[in-house]
Fold each of these.
Amino acid sequence: MNISIVTIGKLKEKYLKQGIDEYLKRLSTYAKIDVIELPDEKAPENLSEIEMIQVKDKEGERILSKISDDTHVIALAIEGKMKSSEQLAKDLDQLATYGKSKIAFVIGGSLGLSTAVMKRANDTLSFSKMTFPHQLMKLILLEQVYRAFRINRGEPYHK
């Protein structure tokens, strides 16, 4: 399975980078994981609604340019579907069973994802109704993908 994590924004925090590197190392025995960090659109602090849409659209174009037509896209969004770890594991297993070997998880910038990215998504995923920094979501997502592989292989993992 080839999994891409397509994100807006470069990871700067050393402690998050260490955690992400650890999960990438653990996941390497299960799948090919590619983390694609795209630059965020520079914008002033106070944006109008139209300016927010323009920023998300520009970031969305960058995201979509990294996703091939044969990729199953899962957009991380606060309004997405909440799933248990077991359900995510089952979903990934079913995708593999039905020949969907390319999966992209998409994490938007601080303003979220564009309408075009949401339309391209085959599925949505929410980890909580709370808002988390998108850099932290990379770590949480990788941990959950790792957990999903462990669940699907019947391997022990703490609960």
Note: The beta strands are 2-8, 32-38, 72-76, 102-107, 123-125.
Amino acid sequence: MRPEDLARIERQLRDEARREGIAHFVVGVAVFRHGKLLVVRRVPDDFHGGMYELPGGGVESGETFAECVERELFEETGLRVRAITDFLGGIDYATRTKSRVRKFSFVVDVEPGEVALEPGEHDAFAWIDAAAIHDLPMAPDTRAAVSALVTDPN
């Protein structure tokens, strides 16, 4: 995606969320390698501990969604974004501390490299395809999103 397209999409998403009273944002990052999707497992004592999810995290004040995608992916996996290639949509959910958060997910192309997990957040990772999706514990909304990704030929 071109940077100006990402900026336009972000303006639209932020405006819509503001109208709906949502002020907290999270990004999810879909990384594919050899036709398989990267998922990471949250440490046991964290929110959704032991569950697999897409890498990602909270958008910081003054940060664009694209900047957050790059930062969170690097912090959580050690992988560097080459380009954001697609916007997948958004979902709303609640956390322990926030009644409503909107998560936006993006597909990225990454530089070559090995996954190096941030030890305090994730303790395992897997490259999965449609056959492996049901073997891993996931929250229902995550499973639905990940299922759509691995059954869609990318």
Note: The longest strand covers residues 81-93.
